[in-house]
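User: I want to check something. If I give you two sequences, will you return the structure for each one separately, not as a complex?

Assistant: Yes, each is folded on its own. Here is the first sequence with its structure:
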Amino acid sequence: MITLLIFAVLTAAFTFTHNMQLSNFLELEQTDTTGNVERVQNAVASRQGYIDYSVRDWACWDDTYQFIEDQNQDYIDVNIQKETLSVIRINVMLFVNESGGLVYAKSVNVETMEEEPVSEGLRKMIEDGTLLTKGENDRIRGIVLLDEGPMFISCHPILTTKQKGPSKGTLIFGRYFDPVVLDTFKDVTCYSLSMHRVDEEMPPDFQEELTQFSQTPDKILVEPLSEENVAGYFQLKDISGEPALIIRADFPRDLYLHGKSTLNYMYFFLLFTGLLTGLGVKFALDRLFISRLIEIDDFVTKVRSEKDLSKRLELKDSDELYRLSKEINGMLNEIDLAEQELKAQEREKKVLLDSLNELVVFVSHEMRIIWANKAALKYMQMDLEGAQMVCLKDTLGISSPLFECQQLEHIFETGDKMSGEFTSRDGKAWFLQAIPVADENGKIIGILETCRDITESKKTEQLLQEKQVAEVANRTKSEFLANMSHELRTPLNSIIGFSDLLYENVYGDLNVKQTKAVGNISKSGKHLLNLINDILDLSKVEAGKLELDYKEFELASKLNSIKNLLSPIADRKKIEVEIQVDKNLDQIRADEARFAQVLYNLLDNAIKFSHENGCVKIEAKKKGDLVEVTVKDNGIGIKVEAQNKLFKPFTQVDSFYSRSFQGTGLGLALVKQLVNLHGGYVWFNSKIGEGSTFAFTIPINGDETGGGNGEVEPLNSTETTENPDF
């Protein structure tokens, strides 16, 4: 049996090698034939290239350019003679102007140098524009199938010698692909060539190759014609890219036949050698090894059936089989020790897996639970013995739409790992992973599933994403406002400047209506400029780009200057503005311009929302290291439900106020940001119908490291404004 098996294996190996080598010779033959066909293709391409070069040489010539314009006879007499076409091996020369009209045509038999009529097929192609170039860089080349025969065609726009336009038309050169040209290719390549048109009936082998060319149009096809000859086919395309001609080149199969003969001799020699080797091996195995191997086999079979690792094998002599018996005995000792160690490892593994918080389940090919760790058993509310009787798809909380029974069967089929997230019925988020487990032969024996609770991490991730989105949106809004404020402020300054010049009669006198209109333009422009400046300041603060310029200044003087600045507005409403400054409070250190901006906004609001003949009080006093400034009015007050809208950009507390009092809602938002930037805070107290009090504190000796917490909390509206601590 062993000898027959060896002989059969050798025969199969020799046969496979023979066929493989024969296939290699076929590939070599195909490669060699493809190379030979490529030489034929190069010869055809050279002929087409020669025509392309010739038509470009004639088309980019000042005399040709002039001839299209005046059709002078001298150009014809000197350049377009029968001998000229014969010398450059061109059958047809056609001159077409830019309007598509045929200016001059010449057709000659290259061999006899006799003139022939121009093909009607070419004339039709000129009339329908097929052979006409569309611009200075347009080129047309390829094969055209005419009734007289296939022809190489090359069309070039007519330009000056420097290849400058505009194009005056198209110059067309043509050369019939006749048997003379085919014989030329045969002489150049030394191969047997044959050619057929695709629009005419072809031999069966050409027709079959044409079908294959429809799938691989640019590939060379190699097919054996007989045991002695092989053919290579390639196609030539017409000017539109469609198949026009199929050319076949025939070659002798010397390489293949010689290789096949050599392989046959080697094949029979190896078979004979294998037969002799098999007989010798059989004799040696029977005499020296088989009987003793049978003894070893019987011993191993007995140990395996009885599962008794205490038995030992005894063989005489000191050859390889004796050493094998010693190794078997040593292996039995090691197996016994390994079995004990494996049991200990199993116990350690169980303790380790039971200590995990993750749910771990091992599933068999029948979709039943083989083993589960302590956490999984607790989650399933059963013991291991009960879990082993349960199918995974029926175990509530372990299976999911992502890892249902069909998915596990897919893992057994493909061996791919799978993982994913799902939400259980109790609302918890889980990360589940299924890993195929294979034996030493690569066969999948089960799937190890792990399930980890990721509820808290998912919540944290979601909060982080929401925070990042909010921060990006806020930065984008601030940058947009800053950019738009700059874009609007430049033309607005121009409007204010020119309107002021007109109002001051710099360019001439205006009548009363014109002066009033120009004054309104200047006033509205300045109001809009103040609004834009507030937007720019607010966006700079929010974008973290506003820096404070700290310096010392006199507090009382600054408060009086703000009062004087707003006195015209207060006088119109007959409102009295009172200022009271603590005697111990002389100078403070802050950004003087920003401090004035904060106080201006608060005082302007107090005057705006006060009744006529009212009173607005400004008070500054010292509180430790801080200066506290309050602005109190007895105006309309703010409703409790509207107080949470304060200090928000572009927000006013009531739509009624929006109609009655001008404003955009930026003032208080900017006040809050500037005060916090100084390291202070702002608050307010208001009662409807009794007035409002706004106050802020900043460090007396501020520096650039100060910063506030940005929080603004309204106090209870029932508290009185006389309470200095609110």
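And separately, the second sequence with its own structure:
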Amino acid sequence: MKKNKYLPLLFLPFLIGTLFSCENNEPPTYDLVVYGATSGGIAAAVQATRMGKSVLLIEPSARIGGLTTGGLGQTDIGNKSAIGGISREFYQGIRAYYDQPEHWKWQDQEEYLDGGQTRTEAGETAMWTFEPSAALQVYESWLRRDNIELVTDQKLDRANGVKKEGGKILSIQMLSGEEYHGKVFIDATYEGDLMAATGVSYTVGRESNATYQETLNGVHTKLRDTTMTGYPARNAINHNFVDGVDPYVVKGDPNSGLLPGINPDGPGEFGAGDHHVQAYCYRMCLTDHPDNRIPFEKPEGYNELDYELLLRNYEAGEKGFPWINSKMPNRKTDTNNRTGFSTDFIGQNYEYPEASYEERESIREKHRQYQKGLMWTLAYHPRMPEHIREEVSRWGTSKDEFAREDGWQQQLYVREARRMTGAYVMTQFNCEGLKVAEDPIGMGAYGMDSHNTQRYVTEEGFVKNEGNVEAKVQAPYPISYRSITPKRTECTNLLVPVCLSASHIAFGSIRMEPVFMVLGQSAASAAGLAIDDDIAVQDVEYPKLREVLMKGKQILQN
């Protein structure tokens, strides 16, 4: 366990206020306890300090920042004018970081061309592309600046670690035995572990279209022409195999068995719900600088059969490049999934949301080994097209980004896990502007985006992916305060800004790191008001909350 890493000696007011309880061997009671030092968790902690509240930030792993410091340097949001408050401050901090010449080690600043993401308008003070290490330095500087108390490597005892009384959480206990008391709690993890352990209702997987009368949820085995508002939805076509890829170990012989990763039970009925979550991957931070590059190596236990579908896809006529290799500063990248067989480990994450810590680590390692084998195959396998081998082999993981010797990160891209079923459920209707939340705490702006969830054999006997949805939103749309509050009967002092209450397809739009920071700030703002008035989070008066949010420069309307 690492404790109080950023707690300076000057952090005296809270220490003095808890002196007498410590003398009686009673643990201190914080105003706010934030579980999960993701981007949203950090924003919540910063906002709590600005409201004069004592706050404890708990991170289950050894590294803060979640995906923002874990490889996702290509900021996805759609319309960046929808991002304000502490979230925009972060991207302004990134701009300030890169305005310092000493942070350009592997290339000159003038050489960096990112494809248009760094600036989105003339004179903008923010920067939207960055290295993981840059994001980490910005967040660490915030924790030092605001005297935020942080403990790392502290995992919640998910079986017996939540003590409640009268619908309120009194304290949470870690596997280490450490116990933390608070007045209000925020679950800012990607998995929703505190929410689940508290007994709050949640769901995992895709609802059927019928559940919320949506059109973009559930199984997608065919192309739907439009969304409710008439925008085309590219769902069954993108990120898929070309026609004619044989799914069997021995081509044309069903008796030889299916190749790895294909669902033998078929895809399910169109529009039906299931327990599938969209695919995970590692957002790789690669480099082509020879002094900073770790070449791709064939992993131990490599099995060519695991990549046979990739090879067959190209042999069947695939022309696309199998990654999105977005340029980051210092000759690095944020590398993401593209085409029918790429970095997404499709169908191999269904158990992750509910899995034990040990099982999750096993799933993360399987994803890492899969991706290691994928990159070696792309770079060196003789059956890959030569132009792909030549390009991919120029790259490798970065020596100077993560703690692992192989250059890979620990943070898996958990695109979705549990989702709360709270006081208000955000749905496709909200994203498309057909239903408008009356109590906005931030704006979503990205398209409704789901990665594939499974592979199956078509009626024609070929392999296809299923689950990809890409649908536009008309404009930034408001996210309801009630979507981060549990039902009153389940808990009255918990807020959930990451695994919030949303359908699968609506969460696919909301689930962006800038929005998680927005929602984290808004959650802490509501927590502060609930503490001041000694009321349930469900009883926070929205006009008061809105006033605090506007003071914090949040964007609440177009």
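Because they were folded independently, the notes below concern the second chain alone. Residues 98 and 104 are 7 Å apart (CA to CA). The domain at 2-90+132-205+478-551 is CATH 3.50.50.60 (FAD/NAD(P)-binding domain).
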